[in-house]
Amino acid sequence: MDYGKLFFCGFDDFNDEVVEIIEKYSPAGILIYPGLLSKEYLFLDFLNFLSKKGKFLVSSDHEGGQLEVLKYIPSSPGNLSLGRVDSSYTEKYCELSGKIMNVLGFNMVFAPVLDLFFKGSAPVVDLRSFGSDPKLVAQHGLKACSGYLRSGVFPCVKHYPGHGRAKKDSHYELPEVDATLEELWETDLYPFRRVLEEVKDATVMTAHIRYPKIDDLPATLSKVLIKDILRERIGFKGLVVSDAMEMKAISANFSVEEIVKLFFQAGGNMILLSDYRNLPVYYETLKRLVKDEEIEKDVLERSVKIVEEYLRKAKFSGGFGFLSEVSEKALLFKEDVSLSNEEEVVVLVPSSENLSPADLTGLDYDEIPKVVSRFFKVKEVIRYNVTKGPEKKVENGLILDFVVNASMNEEALKAHLELPAEKTTYFVIRNPSDWKHFKDRRFVVTLSTKPLSIYKALRHLVGRCDA
Amino acid sequence: MDYGKLFFCGFDDFNDEVVEIIEKYSPAGILIYPGLLSKEYLFLDFLNFLSKKGKFLVSSDHEGGQLEVLKYIPSSPGNLSLGRVDSSYTEKYCELSGKIMNVLGFNMVFAPVLDLFFKGSAPVVDLRSFGSDPKLVAQHGLKACSGYLRSGVFPCVKHYPGHGRAKKDSHYELPEVDATLEELWETDLYPFRRVLEEVKDATVMTAHIRYPKIDDLPATLSKVLIKDILRERIGFKGLVVSDAMEMKAISANFSVEEIVKLFFQAGGNMILLSDYRNLPVYYETLKRLVKDEEIEKDVLERSVKIVEEYLRKAKFSGGFGFLSEVSEKALLFKEDVSLSNEEEVVVLVPSSENLSPADLTGLDYDEIPKVVSRFFKVKEVIRYNVTKGPEKKVENGLILDFVVNASMNEEALKAHLELPAEKTTYFVIRNPSDWKHFKDRRFVVTLSTKPLSIYKALRHLVGRCDA
């Protein structure tokens, strides 16, 4: 059985370990975290990698308002504001956001939040709620889902059966809610019922909250709440994802074995892990539990089928990931140039000046040392003046010299060439005319000042990425 | 005649002066500059304003690579890199970028650059060129245009008839290129010819460069280059826009009267002004020249028709501008609350802490004083601890107190309420339960920490925006 289909994993980085884990376990769900989004070159390289590996559900936590992780989408005033205006605005916001997500390579989003706002609740819900009125929240939730779906993005309503009453934050501890099923039915549960009855391709995220009057187990692990109520009484046949299992509400109270066993037996379909490094342990535990007949195989097979159905309907494009191929294919190397990343390096980069009003690359130079530091221990960063070139005194360690327009300035060219030949690797990142002056040296031509091109050049030189 | 149709104006801000100029002169073309994009709340409010005023061509300078102004689009390695790989990558990049532009409310882009790369040229072209080979540049130019058009964005090829040979930057001085028309025809002009023959809905931007072997006047003002060569010999019937007339190459060598007269008589259709503040002078000069019969009216009428044809085909949605309406409609005020922005203010904002891992609003608090400073002279910014509230000693000047979750912390609530009632205006920006505690005071409820909501609240209170 394809156990990878049963996992949704969070990624805050892209490196050799990620490649290994994805190749070995093939998790069907990929959650892109801010740590990856903040290094766009890695985000794009990751998308490109994924696009060669198959088809995935690719999601983010971008809700709009209190929780926004995609700088590519204009900031929303948030659900609490949207809840005060006509729900057509909510639909439009989710449709337009969904379009951008879709262009970027996402086909799922962990939104909308359908939790009700309650006085005195934990600030974890707050602005993320459309309001206190179950009907109003349902109405906005419906429109949000139809907006996302129209743009090719699966919505994931959360946190079933409702997080609003919780006075604690499940990131830190397991909250308890003292309401009965009857009370929840027309309040917290109402938006979930309405949305899941109408929106067939929605997905659901469960809450790590205990409702002792309904079940002893938290919703995420509760057969009563998932199988009996969500599946049977509400009639939802689609995908049920857990909230991240590493959150203290779950991980501090249950073993991996208990989590895996209880979640699937309760009727859940995909375990969300916020840290991909935890996938091997969960995966192997699941496999062992099946072997030991502690989980019925056909329960898992039903889940795999549900996941496959969403994968079949999903658009998965890889977004702008192809730019990482462009950067790589555009590189020119001297054939025998390679570097060992065991050495410390001195990085020479131009100072952050734009060379024309139609040039905004000055800021790119600030990024170069950060990219280098993913591969090398950076001993020193020296900024040089483009018209003068680097000063001569650089003499220790491996030198990575990022050359900009040296051929336009005799003095600068001379200074670049005076660096010790055996220790220096030249990166021609701008003017193609610079190239010929370095052709007897160790050189790489990127003809791009962008982090993605620098990253691709270094990765090629070093042969791997040791982040 | 609708003279406004003949102007494309750059906007780096949105304020009362902008409103006045657009209402009075209705320029058909709107170029959004980084100064506006960096204040997203103004960008969105501007789009919303435009969407009520009619239909516009909305463009940006986002070329990808060396010149990128939209943070909403992943960074491209640039044209010089794209020129080294298959042109299908260029098409894909422009199509995806165009989709995002379109969702954001843009229907035009001042790209692709079709200038050839020449050794020793000014760094103004550099990485913006696809390469040195006219056929290769033409091929990528064609694909770029078809990508943009497929996404509902008019491309604007530039800088006709080719900026590549210029050794100077036209932002600073008027470059001269010593080539004959015969030399240019198969080189610099080749990509323009190929693209404009095939792509009917493209537009063209002219170069501020003099080609003394072709005409004494710079291309932007040259009847030989625009009317005889571009219109008649190449056969281009579409929209011709100037580069920004404030660039020294033009503005230091010609009067406004000469610029206006020569440009339209040469066959140009829209004058680009990088600064909207210059529109009144240009507009009135044009009007006077028509009245004095120094420009033939039917020359202008033909231009207006061309512009109208593009406007007719353009999709103009206002993008995410509607969020500014959401923020405004969601506000709750005490009826009689208003503020005079002649007074200095003390701004109280929480320190930048997120209240939960599912809360990224902490950084919003840093933005609040910047938004306030568009309306008031900010005397002091005091950051307070959410659980403790502001310290009592604030006693001078008008106080704007941005309240977060006061009702959750008794000590904080007490501290907020101890501020002098007659001087303090409370902004309830998060927990709706806070509201009732301030209902006897001057208050505004935004229930959003976002700059757009704060801006809308202040604009409402002050009655205008004095940026």
Using a beta-carbon cutoff below 8 angstroms, give the protein chain pair with the largest interface and the number of residues from each chain: A-B, 73 and 72 residues
Poorly predicted spans of chain A? none
Q: What is the 3D shape of chain A?
A: elongated
Oligomer: homodimer
β-strand number of chain A:
14
Total DSSP helices of chain A: 17
Largest sheet of chain A: 6 strands, mixed
Question: Largest beta sheet of chain A: what is the strand line-up?
Answer: 9-14-13-12-10-11
- Report the C-alpha radius of gyration of chain A, rounded: 26 Å
Structural class of chain A: alpha/beta
Strand content of chain A: 5-15%
Helical residue percent of chain A?
25-40%
The CA-CA distance between the termini of chain A, in Å, is 32 Å
What value does the average pLDDT of chain A take? 94
Defining traits:
467 residues, four-stranded parallel β-sheet, homodimer, six-stranded mixed β-sheet, 13% strand, alpha/beta
